[in-house]
Specification:
Layout lengths: L6 H22 L14 H5 L1 H29 L8 H26 L2
């Protein structure tokens, strides 16, 4: 039986974590000024430049931490036997869940600012 998972899914597993880190680094370093396209754009962050930089720094840190957590979980999955086609889909799901958790935490913590 052939593998039912398209080859591009395997590429996403490599590219997405690197892309998240590449996107998060300028946010952490404060290199992204308030804009309508890139960063944590809410009414609150767009209303204050200081809050913009603080929230985006925190968001970038949480995105990198959640990506590292997903990659660590993937490492643990190496020891779990499963069908070859299931593994990459599960890895993408884990990344999405970790990223969603990071965004949720940032939005909740932002209310405290």
């Amino acid at each position: 039986m052939t593998n039912p998972v398209p080859h591009y899914v395997y590429g996403l597993i490599i590219v997405l974590p690197a892309l998240v880190v590449a996107i998060a680094c300028p946010l952490i370093l404060g290199k992204v000024p308030p804009n309508p396209w890139y960063g944590l754009r809410t009414r609150r962050t767009m209303s204050s430049q200081a809050l913009w930089y603080k929230a985006n720094r925190m968001g970038g840190i949480y995105l990198i931490l959640s990506t590292l957590a997903a990659v660590a979980i993937w490492g643990g999955l190496v020891f779990v036997p499963m069908a070859g086609g299931l593994r990459p889909l599960l890895e993408l799901l884990i990344l999405v869940i970790c990223q969603g958790a990071a965004i949720t935490v940032v939005l909740v913590r932002m209310k405290e600012m």
